[in-house]
Design a protein that fits this description.
CATH topology: Aspartate Aminotransferase, domain 1
Number of strands: 7
Radius of gyration: 14 Å
Structural class: alpha+beta
Strand content: 15-25%
Number of domains: 1
Order of helices and strands: EHHEEEEHEEH
Strand order of the largest sheet: 1-2-3-4-5-7-6
Length: about 130
Amino acid sequence: MKKAESRGSAPKSKRAAESIDEYIAGVPEPARSTLKQIRAAIQSALPAEASEAISYGIPAFKHNGVLVWFAAFKNHCSFFPTASVIAAFKDELEGFSTSKGTIHFPVDRPLPLALIKKMVKARVAENGRKKRH
């Protein structure tokens, strides 16, 4: 996994996080542990050529463009797999708070790690189709 230089801001820092490691380090528990789990699930579903970045001030993974983002907030962690993926997995996301491009995961509930992996794989396929056109 490549680590890319990037711009952005850590949640509790006045200085911009320059890496996903730095971003996560600036997040208090229990959200820090939740972010680590989300990151590991994402990484396990990515091609080896994918890279890490900070995009829009939050952690992201790229392969043929940005695939997904994730971030910590006061009462939840968010996963941003794009609107098309949320629509494709809407039945499996029942019970989670979602918006057009975001899924909120409460930090006090188990994460749907297998579902996160499936959504990442869907994004990899989606970006692969875009690259060919």
